[in-house]
Amino acid sequence: MIVLPARNEGPRVGRVVAEVRRILPDVEVIVVENGSVDDTAEAAARAGATVLRSGPGYARALRAGFAHALAAGAPWVVQMDADEQHPATALPGLLRALEHADLVVGSRFLGAPGYRIPVHRRTAIGALGAWASVFAGQRLSDVTSGLRAWRPEALAALVADFPEDIADANLLVRAVRRGLRVREIATPMRPRAGGRSMHAGPESALFALRMLVLTAHEGLGPRIDRAPPRVGVG
Questions:
Q1: Which of 32, 101, 110, 122 is most buried by a 10 A CB count?
Q2: Structural domain total, the chain
Q3: 162-192: per-residue pLDDT in tens?
Q4: CA 201-205-209 angle, 5° bins
Q5: Can you give the CATH number for the domain in which 87 is found?
Q6: pTM for the complete prediction?
Q7: Closest by CA position to 35, among listed 10, 54, 52, 59
């Protein structure tokens, strides 16, 4: 199952859903609309997605989508962005990697990123990745990537107390420290096709500070060295 959090992505979300359906025609696409003031929900439905609604915020949208996927018995769950940054052609590779991991992250920084990332943004992501890697105890290169594939049992271990406001680097650290096998694979991406990133604007500094604090909090919690039992990826 594919989960797409989407806020004010009306001009783009339909194309994302259509691209996913071309690559994985038999897979359900869930769009979780969270506080849009445009036609995001309508555009997603026209493209063939199942539309859910959540409270505002990326983390709340993910939690709603994940809960739906678990209730539906999905054999795997992929989260991706609705801004056309994540190519649907990367999905089969993520699912193959999921055979040997509990969580697979598509990373722009393990190979050619696919587009020119501004120096200041690359530096900021690298610094946050280094910070998260210390607390996780393993190298994490792209901690703000929203392209992630999950085993359902891994999600089940996290969704009950899923973060309320931010679910990026802090969630990766939580996953590692709860005994999940987290793997990154090289995934070239595309620049946003319009719209506004949640990491943009003056509030991005506050977001980064909040992320640093939450990531440290996760890293200072108890570590669990036993992962949940795994089943095959269907």
A1: 32
A2: 1
A3: 888 888 999 999 999 999 999 999 999 988 7
A4: 150
A5: 3.90.550.10
A6: 0.88
A7: 54
